[in-house]
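I had to read the description of the data format several times before I understood it. In essence, backbone conformation is discretised, so a fold becomes a row of integers matching the chain in length. I therefore recommend that a typical entry be quoted early in the introduction. For illustration, here is how one protein appears when written out as sequence plus structure tokens.

***
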Amino acid sequence: MLYFAYGSNLHHFQMKRRCKDSIFLKKINLRDFRLTFRSKYRAADIEPKKKSIVPGGLFEISKSDEKKLDVYEDFPILYKKYYFNYYGKKVMTYTMVKKSRFKYPTERYLNVVKRGYKDCKLDLSVLTKALKY
């Protein structure tokens, strides 16, 4: 199955440790969404926003990887699944259930996300903009 990562799961080493079967395919943009950070965990989330993009990593994951991600993402309590089409293929990602207000991420979490942006060769400007919100 295809999985779209946009937060700490962009970090290749962490993703491989969490999901042993995962394979990074390429970077892609999710259109008409924007990146934000929220909840008591100060974690990444996405929300609909016209003419905005969220850069991320497209991964191939197994069923057992998906189960591990469900646990990590506290599905269905903290995050729910969101599906979208990418060139005719179904892609799964997670989005927070409760859309609380913006909370600046912890230094440690932010460093993992930044490392993931490097791993996937993503444009850091979107991350910088999300943090100025």
